[in-house]
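Re: that chain you flagged

S.,

Sorry for the slow reply, it's been a week of failed gels. I finally had a moment to sit down with the sequence you sent. For the record, here it is as I used it:
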Amino acid sequence: MSSSTCRKCLSAFAADGIKAMIEARPGYIHHVPRELEASARRGCGLCQLIFEQETLGRVDDTSYEYIVLFAEEDEPGDSSFMTTLAIWPYPRRDMYADRVILNLSVFAPESMVPSPKKLCSPISSFFTSRPIESDVMAPRVIDRSKKLIAECQKDHASCGNSTSLPRLPLRVLDVSEVQRSSTVRLYLTKKTGEYDHFVTLSYCWGGPQPVVATKATLKQLQNGMRISSFPQTLQDAFRITNALGFRYLWVDALCIVQDDDVDKMNEIGNMDQVYGDCTLAISAAVAETVHEGFVAYPRKEPFFVIPAELPNRKRGDVFVAPCIEADFADLPLQGRGWTLQEWLLPPRILFYGDREVVFECRTAGTRGVCPSYVSYETVNSNPGRIVDHRHHVPSAAERGRRWVLFMRGFSARKLTVASDRVHAMTGIQKALSASWQDECVAGLWRSTFPLCLAWERKMRVQPAPKERTGNAPSWSWLSINTPVTADLDLFQGFDRVDAQVLAVSKWEVKLRG
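Prediction finished late last night. Pasting the structure tokens below so you have them in one place:
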């Protein structure tokens, strides 16, 4: 708590104030306008949050009399707990009457001291939301991650269960000695096939890699190398994989021979199996380069603390912060072309974001590994991953809509080499060909080919350099190195085929219809 917390804010979280926020209407009566501004300037954290809201800042002092705080009910009629605080000017004499200007999360730690003592906070049963766990290697984060993975394997049929082990890729990294001898070695699997759980890493290269598999370094990697020899992102991935109880990790820079074109093309052609069959993908979402790492990323939680007293006279500290709706769009990994299929294909993902560790699977969607006040409602309301249900073939119209969404997202991502545009979607294309029982022709599907031809280049402020990729026909969206789009309404009521693709020869398409 800041020493400058004003009396009104302190009183709001006293027993009578909390009772007023829950039971009274309009709620707890806070500051009048001029007092609010003065308190904010004196440094009261809650008053600053309220005063800084643009909606309120544009309103003249005469348009309302005072600020009101009231508890929003998560369950109608249930006032036994509080998670969200709503704030509004009252009464309003303008077009914004009865409009909430700010929602705040209110939460308390589950325990007052770190485990294993587990001393519960006296007010944690009333303020049921929890702070963010920013230490991604904390024992409770690792334990909770293991539990979520095991539950998904056991109960989620569409995510793939643990009854059958996946086939290991051609090469994997053995991280079983990370704790004992701090070494990692490259393991070449048997040609007849070996089966075991394995993890994949999705990350940004961010330029030339200091350690890669080449014809010259293969032997050294197979003999084993100290983990300190590798850049920080890979070190973090080694330790997490080992902590989660897995032995094998697949990393493209170390499991594909980078100076062997035949090996590269073979392995790129197997991305649907590598990422689609892995037990788990680790997503290093916050690291722009392989040197940065993602474990020690400064995850800071913007909250302030106020002492609270419940109506039952129990006391403890309550944490107050702006409500957070998760959004991954601006994280470095989300802007790279190669990493889209690395997010779409795996059955389950541990996503190391800018706030906390997030678990995602095909069945249950996205959630924080450790429950916190961060909301994932918007993330989960977006269209699901394109290979969500391998045993269910969507209608042609639904396939067309899903592909347009993929096309929009993929074309907006960056690729260092423009000609990689086709290769960077090979895995998702192969997975969908098998799942949808359809054929992809230069980025368009036979079943919806005529409609998918109606793509267009998105408007841009400046034309892209080297806009033409040169490795796809001009009628394909893969032929240009710029974001593209198409109208989803094209597929409304799409229940018959107006034209069919008869043949494709040297990128010449013949249509009938």
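What I noticed first: Residues 206 and 289 are 4 Å apart (CA to CA).

Talk soon,
D.
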